[in-house]
Amino acid sequence: MQKFLYIYAHIFFVALFITSFPIFPIAEAASTDTEAPIVIYINPSNNATEVDPSTSITATFSEEMDVSTINTSTFTVKYNNAYQIEGTVNYSNKTATFTPLTPLSGTYVVRITTGVKDLAGNSKANTSIWIFTTEGTLYPIVISTLPDVGATSVGLGQHIYAQFSNDMDPASINTSAFKVKDNNNDLISGTVSYGDRIAVFTPLPLLSFNTTYIASISTGVKDIDGNHMQSDFTWSFSTGYTIEPEPLDFGSGCFIATAAYGSYLDPHILVLREFRDNYLLTNLPGRLFVSFYYKFSPPIADLISKYEPLKVTTRSALALIVYSIKYPFKIIVLLGFGAFIVMIGRKRKKVHGNNEIIGIIKKGK
Length: 365
Fold this sequence. Notes:
The chain is of the alpha+beta class.
């Protein structure tokens, strides 16, 4: 028994040492890197409040990056998602750091774009976005739009979307607060709807060709806690000659995870979303699974969002999935180690059983 425990302890510590590295060097050398890098840690965290004004903003990647792609064009910080603040960007040991030139004050939206690449030249699959504030309250702001700010050749059948940082009061999202004007400053007719932090303006009839439009959302909108936007948000875009609209993709779709973590910008959801984009949506079985998930998960997510115990349980389960995505080799080694221990246990049990049978036979003689 003592010999078994001695061997068990040594195997455990050897496995722990090996799995302390996210990627085993031999396995890395034996294959070509085709995996897109992902952001695995951010600071300040998403939705953080009362952040120190002297704080630098950091993002840690899943692998070493091409330092030439980490710059103020691919790593941006915008005050109220409207004005890009000045700062310097540095990179070291998988971590990019944005250092503002002046102290922070207010609410900021951080973006790391698909322009960043790893050492193998793989681009990030999608843009990472998160928000924080130096104040005690995180006031709602618009963090994404469709069409994008300054977009051109927009389809005439395009609906106009605005995504908020907070859960909003649906009653405040209406045609008085969300307006669209043409290049003659005339209001265009349409309806406004809201769901899942996204406001939608549906033009009636279609947009006109080769026309510039200005969309605006006023401070009349407020979140479910009664906090109003602190300033109006305005952006423009222009149409082309086609009708086909651009599909909505704000990186949403992780309904259950969003319900569990409370925000689709949570770092855990960033990992899950990038896994979806990089691995599931690139093959037929994966796309079928995603389609099935999108169809049946919303009611489950709605149930989870209403009960804190369900949120905690779901977060615990998702944490294991996220860990296995970030460190697949660790999971393989630990599973193999577990199977090895089970095999030894069964073998010892079998030997013990055989010894009992032999003892009974001897007694019979």
